[in-house]
Amino acid sequence: MTFNDLGLNKLLLKAIKEQGYENPTPIQEKAIPVILKRKDILAGAQTGTGKTAGFTLPMLELLLRSKHHEHKGKRKIKALVLTPTRELAAQVGESIALYAKHTVFTSTVIFGGVKINPQLVALRRGVDIVVATPGRLLDHINQKTIDLSGVDFLILDEADRMLDMGFVNDIKKVMAVLPSQRQTLLFSATYSDDIKKLSNKFLQSPTLIEVARTNASSEIVKQAIYHVDKARKRELLTHLIKEGNWKQVLVFTRTKHGANRLTGQLETDGITAAAIHGNKSQNARTKALADFKAGKIRVLVATDIAARGIDIDQLPHVVNYELPNVSEDYVHRIGRTGRAGNKGEAISLVCVDEDEFLAGIEKLIKKDIPKVWLKGFKPDPSIKAEPINMGGNRGARNKPRGGGSRNGGGNRGNGGRRR
User: Fold this and answer.
1) CA max distance for the chain
2) How deeply is 287 buried, as exposed, middle or buried, from its count of CB atoms within 10 A (0-12, 13-18, 19+)?
3) What does the DSSP assignment read for 273-297?
4) DSSP 388
5) How far is 175 from 172, CA to CA, in rounded Å?
6) What number of other Cβ atoms are within 10 A of residue 412's Cβ?
7) Secondary-structure breakdown of the chain: helix, strand, coil percentages, each rounded to the nearest 5
8) CB-based contacts of 364: which residues, under 8 Å, 6+ apart?
9) In what order do the strands lie in the sheet with 153-156?
10) Residue 115: strand, helix, or coil
11) Alpha helices in 219-324 (DSSP H)
12) Three-class SS of residue 175?
């Protein structure tokens, strides 16, 4: 199948061609025809599957068919896309701008961490499409600086992560001000009980679309576990980067403090690095990501929440400096490499404290990850496991949630509500 077979407007086909795409991905091939029939969908899609274009293209097509662009007077918001993080909002906003470039439709991105005045100016001027994070959108709703009464399309992108970050009540408040007659598209990498409840409450007889086994780790990502003592992780990471001559590496830590500390240590080792997490200003996060993509720095150290929306087609290496305590996050992390048909490598540095997390991950992905004991870095068998300090939960070991449902109560300690 080609994009020409999907019944899209020539203006959209021109933009698609300019991006170098000829054939839709599986999620696009399945979702676009259903969305064009004005049906709600519940779509299971991992990161890197092309889901952004999977909802952007049919949304723009339906706006073109509705003749909305011919309406006189101030533009009224017709489509709202909710995302969990600033980075993902910015990425989605860029995609919408690219595919809408030959149409008259306008869009804007709304999130916290930046000045609100430019957002107010854009909203007063009038836009067709808004991409937003829940916290800042609620600020606009409460201040009556945004009118959502004309919204025809609502897209919840990475809904599982929004619930995991504690946005469930924010989502409900947003839903309360939207028209009841609308088309709702929900995209999620996992189907937890909370996602099913959200779907039952806000979607009308949705069509279920799934393109890959839920929680399946990418088959084109080469995975490996390097067993090492906790105190020697930084030394091993530096060794791997230098010996392998790695030019671009995304490294995950569990905490913001850990990301800052590791960044400084790598710089001391002569490796250019930058950290990206919720405590960084939006300008600092944007610059760090831009420098990483441009090759100005070799290592980007990120927390899970900040990494949502990092979309680099040819990222060769992902390193789990620390395993996540939520097993599903491992899948999201390694999904940052091996994108767009490219091969990727995901390495995890695992100390004895993290054995439970590793067991939960392997249970979730239903496979054993190859183990490596590198000469000179073999762990000391006399070292016993200790509870992992998760930041705000001192002294308590967080059990891995291997395949279990996410806690909608949220992980606000690593990013906060006002995203």
Assistant:
1) 75
2) middle
3) EEEE-TTS-HHHHHHHHHHHHTTS-
4) -
5) 5
6) 15
7) 40, 15, 45
8) 215, 327, 328, 330, 331, 402, 403
9) 107-110, 129-132, 79-82, 153-156, 183-188, 41-44, 207-210
10) coil
11) 233-243, 256-268, 282-293, 304-307
12) helix
Among candidate residues 395, 86, 415, the one with its CA nearest the CA of residue 254: 415
Type and span of the H or E element at 50: none
Taking only Cα atoms into account, the Rg of the chain, rounded to an integer number of angstroms, comes to 22
The domains located in the chain, with CATH, are 3-210 (3.40.50.300), 221-405 (3.40.50.300)
Q: Which two tokens stand for residue 217?
A: 């780790």
Instruction: Return d(Cα 351, Cα 358) in angstroms, integer.
Output: 10
CB 77 within 8 A of CB 150: yes
Minimal CA–CA distance to 32: which of 248, 209, 240?
Answer: 209
Q: CA-to-CA distance for 105 and 128, rounded, in angstroms? A: 6
Cα separation, 388 vs 394, whole angstroms: 8
Judge whether 6 and 30 are in contact, CB under 8 Å: no
Distance separating alpha carbons of residues 311 and 22, to the nearest angstrom:
20
Q: Which two tokens stand for residue 63?
A: 């706006």
Please give the angle made by the CA atoms of 146, 150 and 156, to the nearest 5 degrees: 80
Three-class secondary structure of residue 170 per DSSP = helix
| b/e burial code for range 184-198 (CB count within 10 A of at least 16 → b) | bbbbbbbbbebbeeb
Type and span of the H or E element at 10: helix 10-18
Per-residue pLDDT of the chain (419 residues; tens, 9 = 90+): 889 999 899 999 999 999 888 889 889 999 999 999 999 999 987 666 788 999 999 999 999 998 765 656 678 999 999 999 888 898 899 999 999 999 999 999 999 888 899 999 999 999 999 999 999 999 999 999 999 999 999 999 989 888 888 898 999 999 999 999 999 999 987 777 888 888 998 999 999 998 754 455 556 689 999 999 999 999 999 999 999 999 999 999 999 999 999 999 999 999 999 999 878 887 888 888 889 988 999 999 998 866 665 667 678 899 999 999 888 788 878 877 876 566 789 999 999 999 999 999 998 888 899 999 898 898 888 888 887 766 543 333 344 433 333 333 333 333 344 44
The verdict on pTM exceeding 0.70 is no
Report d(CA 286, CA 114) in Å as an integer: 11
How far is 326 from 385, CA to CA, in rounded Å? 19
